[in-house]
Amino acid sequence: ADNGGYIHAPSLSHAATAAILRSGYLSRTGDDRLQYAVDLSSARVRSARFVLDAVREGQPIGAVFGYQVERGLHDHNLDKWIAPLRTRYPLVAAKSGDSEDFDPANPDQPLDHIAARNVVDGLALRKAFQEGTVPWGRFGLPASGADRAGIEAELVRLDETADATSDLLLAEAVYQLVKGSPT
Questions:
Q1: What pTM was estimated for this model as a whole?
Q2: Which of 172, 64, 171, 47 is closest to 118 using CA atoms?
Q3: Closest CA to 92 of 70, 64, 118, 111
Q4: Taking the C-alpha atoms of 158, 64, 76 and 126 in order, what is their torsion angle to the nearest 10 degrees?
Q5: pLDDT in tens, 96-144
């Protein structure tokens, strides 16, 4: 129970990568240990690769996450909540601080530069959900009930996708370091 189990890997580089990741996990205790838990199950890798492929093709990460949320809402017949989410969490152009118009501390401020309003900014929505600042019951969003539970389920799924992407990037970075290619 204390040795972490066996590692089956296709190559020595893969085995060394898994050993490093496992060592980081086993060296921690309590809640701190969860930060080092890497789950590379096939479903999580598929969702992470979808995100990475879309970003590689030039899509902003907020748009990719927003697409996932909107697709999930559509699949669960919650389409009526997409427009309020798009209004509250628009995909804003020049968010990196290039624009003097966007103030992240005041998202209600009018913006001059807004990207196409065809998708929710999933990254901003995820951050608001994690911080508990989604304005439920205001701005056209449901206060409670099954619709809110459905939206929250999609936001939990979005958080899982972001975590899967993080795990995949961490594993790839460690793998490249083990191979001797830090760049």
A1: 0.79
A2: 64
A3: 111
A4: 40
A5: 544 445 555 666 665 544 455 589 999 999 999 999 999 999 988 998 8
Rounded Cα–Cα distance for residues 107 and 105 (Å): 6
- Letter for the amino acid at 141? L
Give the residue ranges of the chain where pLDDT is below 70: 1-2, 93-117
Inter-CA distances, 104 with 85, 92, 93, 94, 132, Å: 17, 11, 12, 12, 16
Decide: helix, strand or coil at residue 120.
strand
Running DSSP on this structure, what letter comes out for residue 81? G
Q: Could you give the maximum distance between any two Cα atoms of the chain, in Å?
A: 58
Q: Name the token pair of 94.
A: 């020049």
Half-sphere exposure of 53 (CA within 13 A, CB side): 6
